[in-house]
Amino acid sequence: MVNRIVVGAHYGLKDWIIQRGTAIIMAVYTVIFLAVIGAVGPDSFEAWRGIFANGFMKFMTFLFFLSLFYHAWIGIRDIWMDYAKPDGLRLLLMIATAAVLVGYAGWAVQILWRM
Amino acid sequence: MAEIAIKKKRPKNLDLLSIRLPLPGILSIIHRISGAVLFLLLPVLLWLFQSSLASPESFATFKSVVGHPLIKLILLGLIWLYMHHFCAGIRYLLLDLHKGIDLESARLSSWIVFGVSIAMTLIIGAKVLW
User: Fold this and answer.
1) What is the CATH number of the domain that holds B48?
2) How many CB pairs under 8 A join A and B?
3) SS3 assignment for A44-82
């Protein structure tokens, strides 16, 4: 008989849902992006920049980046939990992963709003 | 008696070279590897995106970098990794909803993931890279 007490903590349910929610956002963005590229066929700098100067695409692209970084955090953390067994090493890799992803989010803001 | 049955040693084979994964297993490990590779290349991809948008000069640099035949080949590979992760991810979302969880459907949907992701890679490569 299994006596597992499942109250108090959520045992990763939140991450499980976020992993899927961010996946859906990115999948929708991928379809929108491919449709826009197909319709505009940007072959010049002005045409390419024009896509991301548009308010809707800028918003969606930023949402895509945030989803990507959160999605990557959960996925890469899962990889460290599977293969990096010593606690110290695992903690180090997780902190490094979180740090670069937070940095990338700042970088993405800069790319989109300083272009 | 039940306890003895549970404690009985079961055969274990973790020799990676002798394991023959079924197709959904191959799909699964490529899903993980593609995610890891795309994560590791994020700084390069963000740099490329930045170059393409920052100024006409950086756009010219971007054009010359992605115009190199070897880079084009690498980008085609990355597009495939992205498309595989995308298609396999949609399959997993459907499995989460208990769609296609019997063996036959799971095998069929794996074939579809490989077929669709490779086809989309070739179409995007033909339209954008060449």
Assistant:
1) 1.20.1300.10
2) 52
3) CHHHHHHHHHCHHHHHHHHHHHHHHHHHHHHHHHHHHHH
Does B17 map to a domain? Answer: no
Q: Is residue B125 part of a domain?
A: yes
Q: Which of B56, B89, B127 sits opposite A27 (nearest CB)?
A: B89
B50/A111 CB distance under 8 A: yes
What domains appear along chain A, each with residue ranges and CATH number?
13-113 (1.20.1300.10)
Q: Are A88 and A94 in contact (CB under 8 A)?
A: no
Q: What domain count does chain B have?
A: 1
Q: What is the pLDDT of residues A82-104, one digit of tens each?
A: 999 999 999 999 999 999 999 99
Residue B4 has pLDDT above 60, yes or no: no
Q: Is residue B73 part of a domain?
A: yes
ipTM: 0.90
Distance CA B111, CA B56 (A): 43
Å from A8 to nearest chain B CA?
A: 25
For the stretch B40-99, pLDDT in tens is: 999 999 999 999 999 999 999 999 999 999 999 999 999 999 999 999 999 999 999 999
Query: Looking at the partner chain, which of A27, A48, A110 has a beta carbon nearest the beta carbon of B52?
Result: A48
